[in-house]
Amino acid sequence: MAGHSKWANIKRQKAVVDAKKSKTFTQLSRAIIVAARSGIPDPAGNFQLRTAIDKAKAAGIPNDNIERAIAKGAGTFSDSANFEAIRYEGYGPGGVAILIEALTDNRNRTAADLRVAFSKNGGNLGETGCVSWMFAQKGVCVVEGVVDEEQILEASLEGGAESYEMTEDEIAEVFTDVANLENLNQTLKDKGLQVTDAELRWIPSNSVEVTDPEQARSLFKLIDTLEGLDDVQNVTSNFEMAENLMALSIV
């Protein structure tokens, strides 16, 4: 998971900057709408909604916008848009597998936008199932300020985690079964650990090594283009590459 976790860390760093963009506001608002629609519209009893609201607040979305998004999801706010969650799959430069999670009110528009993004950046949008078999969905808790690895180990075991990984200085990612994410999140917090994110993430079971700088640049451009689309919520891939090539993603 090392390469994937490294990429996740880079994406988090970039998200600090992107949080000021309206595109991120759109993404987070849609995530709240879908979470409220898929469960009860009360964050106290809906973990997915609670985490979506936490992310929205961290990005600086005003409370009025958050309340409006909850109302849209609950059906108590007049809005003709009906968003649905769809997963798309394809291949990037070098045969890298790519999963795209989208929230859209127009499937045809989203598919067309994705097809253009792939074709212009050395990849191709595939059929459903073409790459998803290479990934497993897991719950992930990101913990910061970890100074005692024994503490994270013990708390992870008590919370029913499958594994954990120290990804940077004092930052750990703890992996668990999807159904156990809420329990793990609460257990880690009860143990006094600083959980900064709790999310569902697709983890690749195999990886494609990217060694060519031009391929790396094309891959990062494709991912950036996909993530720049309003309908796209998350992009996951199965590449591995050296640190010096990974740095090209920040340039």
UniProtKB/TrEMBL annotation:
Q: Which UniProt keywords apply?
A: Coiled coil, Cytoplasm, DNA-binding, Transcription, Transcription regulation
Ranges for domain TACO1/YebC-like N-terminal come to 5-75
Task: List the coiled-coil residues.
Answer: 164-201
Keyword DNA-binding on this protein? Answer: yes
A GO cellular component term found in this entry reads: cytosol
Q: Which GO terms describe its molecular function?
A: DNA binding
Q: Where in the cell is it found?
A: Cytoplasm
Source organism per entry reads Amazonocrinis nigriterrae CENA67
Name of the protein: Probable transcriptional regulatory protein I8748_12390
Spell out the Gene3D superfamilies in the cross-references. 1.10.10.200, 3.30.70.980
Which parts of the sequence belong to the TACO1/YebC-like second and third domain?
Answer: 83-239
Its GO biological process terms? regulation of DNA-templated transcription
